[in-house]
Amino acid sequence: MVTGARRRAVRDADRQIDTAHLLHSLLESDPEARAVVGDGPQIARLLGYLVQRSIGYGLRWQSGVEDSGAVPVVTETAGFSPLAAASMEYACERAERHGGPARGVDLLAAIVVDSQARAVEVLRRAGIDPHAVLARLDGWSQRPQEGLDRSEERVDRSQEGLDWPEDRAERSQECVSGGEGAY
Hints:
Strand content: under 5%
Number of domains: 1
Shape: globular
CATH topology: Double Clp-N motif
Oligomer: single chain
Structural class: mainly alpha
Distance between the termini: 6 Å
Protein name: Peptidase
InterPro entries: Clp_N_dom_sf
Helix content: 55-70%
Radius of gyration: 15 Å
Region (Disordered): 143-183
Largest sheet: none
CATH architecture: Orthogonal Bundle
C-alpha cells in the first residue's frame, strides 16, 4: 500500500507522500477500507476526484508540505508529509492498542482523524463526510470510538517529528507496509 502511495507521489511530481496519496492507494488496494468509505457511487466519485487531482488538479498542493499548521513544518520524514508520517504511526499504535496487526481500516481512521489532512479535504470535496467515515470505522472494526478530537494529539505527535529518529520512521513504514501488519 505504501509502495503504491510512493509511486503515485513520484508520478504526480510531489516531493512527499501525503495523506491523499495514502487514501488513493488504500482505496485501490483494500476492499475493507473501500466498504467503510461508502457505496459504489461514492467510491467512484472519490476515485474520480483523486485521479483528477493526480493529473493536475492538485498542482496547487505540490509546492507546499501537508501540515496542520499547528506545529513547525517537518521538512523530511522518510519522504512523507508530517501528517502522513503521523498517520502511519497512529495506525500502528491504533492496531497495537486493539491487539491486532495493522489493517487498512487503521490507516483510514488515522488519515480521517485530522481535519487539516489533504485526505479529509478530498473526502469533503467528493461529498463524503469524514465524521461519518470515522463513525462507520468504529462500528466496522468493533473497536472503541476514538473520535475526531484525537487530531490534537496527532498534531502534538507530529511536533515530535521534528526530531523523529530514522528508525522510528522505518518502524512505522514497516508496520504499515506489512512487516507487522496486514496491509
